[in-house]
Automatic annotation (TrEMBL):
Residues 1-22 form the signal peptide. Residues 30-49 are annotated as: Disordered. It comes from the Bacteria. The keyword Signal applies. Keywords: Signal. The lineage of its organism: Bacteria, Pseudomonadati, Pseudomonadota, Gammaproteobacteria, Lysobacterales. This is Secreted protein.
Length: 124
């Protein structure tokens, strides 16, 4: 049986990293580890409204399937094309614009949506 040397080194590093990382966290005050408020930078995805999270997920899946539809072998292209057709309509420019209008007073959400805008809006 042949053991990949790099895989073995990676496994050893991962096993030893747990103890190295755990030790410093024990001395950190609990207040430092708290989640930031929703309006602070560093807002987590779980703090976003459900419709924004849904749009971002569909947009990223759409971009992934479009990329796969343009490359790869015939089976991958066929599957990716079908998946893109089913996911992409929910992540189109009209949906994005609706969300931007809905959350226009909230800079954090607006900034996140700006980063996730559809490609047809980026080129204009």
């Amino acid at each position: 049986m042949r053991i990949d040397r790099n895989a073995m080194l990676a496994l050893i590093l991962l096993m030893s990293a747990g103890s190295v990382i755990a030790a410093p966290l024990q001395s950190v005050p609990a207040s430092t580890l708290q989640q930031p408020a929703a309006d602070e930078p560093g807002k987590g995805a779980q703090d976003l409204p459900e419709d924004v999270r849904g749009y971002i997920l569909k947009h990223r899946m759409c971009m992934h399937f479009r990329k796969d539809a343009e490359s790869g072998d015939a089976d991958v292209r066929a599957n990716a094309t079908q998946l893109a057709k089913s996911v992409c309509p929910a992540a189109d420019a009209a949906t994005w614009k609706k969300l931007v209008r809905k959350y226009q007073g909230q800079d954090t959400i607006g900034g996140i949506l700006l980063a996730e805008r559809p490609p047809e809006i980026r080129t204009k």
